[in-house]
Amino acid sequence: MSIVTEIIIDAPVAEVKEVFFDFPGHENWNPFFKSIKVVNADKPDVGTRLSVYMQPENGSAMTFSPTVLENSEKEFAWRGTLFFEFLATGRHYFQFIPVTENGKEVTKLIQGEDFGGLIFYLMKGIIRDTEVSFNKLNVALKEKVEGKPSS
């Protein structure tokens, strides 16, 4: 089971990533992942543990500790487990794709997650609410990068 969302941000990839990787700043603009902290290192390299506090749409806030799977030029991804792997696991990713629109470099942000575990098959509403949360994060990042007020 998967969710994939995307948005065009009117700024080059470097600018989008600068805002995204300012983890302490997320509390000021990110409506979904309210806090992202690197736990066992100075930066989010592959294998690093994160502490992520999230507030999903129509759900309870929680903190989880995913492991960074990728931090490349085009993708940042982590893998998290909720309680037990058979219950809920996910590979969450952000892709930063440079595209040209009207002769200007902009960024296509793709945010998605590949889910596994029983909870997602038993509670389909979680997937719908999670997609809403992803889209709200995408819009908030776009507004932050483009300098527009968050709604």
UniProtKB/TrEMBL annotation:
InterPro entries: Polyketide_cyclase/dehydratase, START-like_dom_sf. It holds the Pfam family Polyketide_cyc2. It comes from the Eukaryota. This is SRPBCC domain-containing protein.
